[in-house]
What we know:
Blueprint: H1 4-14, E1 38-42, E2 45-48, E3 53-56, H2 71-81, H3 92-104, E4 110-114, H4 117-132, E5 136-140, E6 161-162, H5 172-175, E7 178-181, H6 186-196, E8 200-205, H7 221-232, E9 235-239, H8 251-256, E10 262-266, E11 276-280, H9 282-285, H10 304-317, H11 322-344, E12 349-353, E13 356-360, H12 369-372, H13 377-389, E14 392-393, E15 402-403, H14 410-425
Parallel strand pairs: 3-14, 5-7, 5-8, 8-9, 9-10
Antiparallel strand pairs: 1-2, 2-3, 4-11, 6-7, 10-11, 12-13, 13-15
Helix pairs in contact: 2-10, 3-10, 6-7, 11-14, 13-14
The structure holds pyridoxal-5'-phosphate (PLP).
Amino acid sequence: MVTTKSKTFYRKAVGLMPGGVNSPVRAFKAVGGSPLFIQRAKGSKIYDVDGNEYIDYVLSWGPMILGHSHPSVVKALKKIIENGTSFGAPTPLEIELAQMIIKAYPSIEKVRMVNSGTEATMSAIRVARGFTKRDKIIKFEGCYHGHADGLLVKAGSGAATFGVPDSPGVPKDYAKNTITIPFNDIKAFKDVVQKEWKNIACVIIEPVVGNIGCVLPRDGFLETLRKETATYGIILIFDEVMTGFRVSYGGAQAYYGIKPDMTCLGKVIGGGLPVGAYGGRKDIMSMVAPEGPVYQAGTLSGNPLAMTAGIETLKILSKKDIYKKLNNTMQYLEEGLKDVAKKVGVKTRFYRAGTMFCTYFTDTEVVDYKTAKTSDIEKFSRFFRGMLNHGINLAPSQFEAGFISIAHTHTDINRTIEAAYKTLKSL
Ligand SMILES: *Cc1c(COP(=O)(O)O)cnc(C)c1O
């Protein structure tokens, strides 16, 4: 595949932006080579500036569940843009999207729109702290909740460690309020809660971890979190920025039947425009300004373009049998990928929740960050590059989830499976 133009753009971009990109993982650091510069995308396909076509499993890291540039979303955006793009004042569109979210997520009684997933988690935690008058938070190793200071902590090994920042620039004093526990470790969780509950404001978790691939909660894990947090007056926050309207219409909380106190959303609810939202129990959300004393604001929050793209996306997703269809396509891909790995004799582990998925190059069952790390990264990188050469766009890191959209056809999947067969054989 010729990628001369992408390489030229990349050289130019490196001089202008850190690493040539506006978000680190785009830079292909984890897999080698340089990133593709994208010209356009339509449905399940994405096209680079050299004119190459790829079947896209990144989907802007999740939001494009309808496929790229869906006609209904485009039409609605064109219509709304004529009326102005932002007013800094309330609009009926915000009510419409809020109603759709609240209807789909019974745990959310009131919601606040923001501009990104990072803003959603950061704000939800501030509210939880304000509500409980406690400072510490619990997060799980490998869970990504955006790039706010106290959340860039995964901590070292051991059952539970007090936070050390992952990134320079995060004050130690700040990170020390973040307690990190391995995902799926019920015992470590209970131990920390029993010892520290008086200081713990909230537990924040990706109910399915999409930011180390795709790690599923063990039976009873989320139930334990729910039970223990309720006992000790700790706020349970589900970060469903990735899983919301993705794992199912009602997110992971509907899928697993758990009712968190607060929920963070993003990605799909913006239909490809910058958006985030956080919401939850009425008594907790009443803490948010101007109803309550916890301050949080946003110049462009709830802007008409993002609301419109979100509303149109959710309208289509709420149609009958959409998730059934998505699930069928996903299952077809799952079976195909497992099948070729077996045929070729490459040891892989495949996981998925709804239409989030990941293939790890390991023989170990992946249940947390440590076991995810057993994947053979070198092998993944070769797989990634091979697939790209065959016109298949996967996330450029082993520790990211893949996604499909309603635009992915069985023909797309057949091409993907064929490419996987050829690539795995040549590893
Ligand atoms: C993507 C993501 C975020 C951050 O969202 P941004 O819009 O990139 O700030 C937070 N939490 C989870 C689970 C995510 O997948």
